[in-house]
Amino acid sequence: MITILVCVSPRETTALGAFVGISGQRPTGTRATGQRVNALLTQPHNNIMNRNKGSKANQWQDHYTRRAQKENYPARSVYKLAEIQQKHRIIAKGDRVLDLGCAPGSWLKYAAEQTGPGGTVLGVDLTPVTERLPSNVRTLVGDIHQLRANAAEAIGQGFQVVLSDMAPSTTGDRFGDGVRSFELCQAALAVADELLQPGGRFVCKIFQSEDFKAFCDQVKSRFDRMHIFKPQSSRKASREIFIIGLGKK
Ligand SMILES: C[S@@+](CC[C@H](N)C(=O)[O-])C[C@H]1O[C@@H](n2cnc3c(N)ncnc32)[C@H](O)[C@@H]1O
To answer: How far is CA 247 from the centre of its chain?
Structure first.
């Protein structure tokens, strides 16, 4: 039997009897301005590569991690979404956004800043989000594969944006990790098929593998335009890359 948990705060949960946990969080009382969003993107990062401490990859990670801490985001992945937003304008004011693989919550926070209080952001993850988020953000605790089966029933339709930053726990087995990433992308696309409005936008992280082209083709067939995007804030050595679908048919 699957159980629905409704969380009225990150620490309180009530069993309801179906899919996943839903969590509403208190307002943080502050919201980033457009100026701050631009600041997210314009801070220089070139100089970090010249320091003579640790590996370049570690310096890179440390730089973005420190910056995320300073700017009150729970993860450095926020800068990848910020770059995508700057280039492709995925999220508009008032949008309804679904964020798959949302923990620890930096994309949720950034997306809520982009929609403004007139929009809503719903996140889903295996792991509960404990970060304090604006009042227009809700989170569900659950597995995307379960959500896929009854998505509309569990969370409703009519999203303008579906984001997926989901990643499998990596094992170092490039082939296996690639297969698991592809499976998560398939699940994200199935959810987008069901819940995204015509004209809607889709962003999905994938580990490049043999299935990469097949996934690009699937996105191409469902959207007016498909883009492949590697953010600067994503390590060059990482096989992650983002597929963007614009204008759902
Ligand atoms: C890179 S993290 C996401 C970071 C997030 N975008 C942020 O900025 O805070 C990837 C997330 O995918 C989630 N995930 C992996 N498999 C999942 C699944 N089957 N269903 C739901 N979430 C999943 C993981 O629990 C993890 O929190």
So the answer is: 19
The partner residues of 223 in beta bridges, in order of sequence, read 248
Dihedral (CA of 216, 219, 221, 224) sign: negative
- Whether 233 maps to a domain, the answer reads yes
For residue range 185-202, what is the model confidence (pLDDT) as tens digits? Answer: 999 999 999 999 999 999
Distance separating alpha carbons of residues 127 and 158, to the nearest angstrom: 25
Domain membership of residue 194 as a residue range: 19-43+78-248
Pocket of ligand 1 (CB under 6 A): 74-75, 77-78, 101-107, 124-127, 143-145, 165-167, 184
The number of distinct structural domains making up the chain is 1
Distance 127 CA to ligand 1 centre (A): 8
- Counting from 1 in the atom list of ligand 1, the atom nearest the Cα of 205 is 1
pLDDT digits (tens, 9 = 90+) for 120-130: 999 999 999 99
CA within 13 Å, CB half, 200: 24
Alpha helix (H) residue ranges in the chain: 34-42, 56-70, 78-88, 106-115, 144-149, 151-155, 174-195, 212-222
Measure the CA–CA gap between 100 and 140, rounded to whole angstroms. 10
- Answer whether residue 61 is part of any domain: no
Termini Cα distance of the chain:
36
The three-class DSSP label of residue 219 is: helix
SS3 content of the chain, % helix, strand, coil (to 5): 40, 25, 35
| Domain contains 82 | yes
What predicted TM-score, i.e. pTM, was given to this entire model?
Answer: 0.83
205 is catalytic: yes
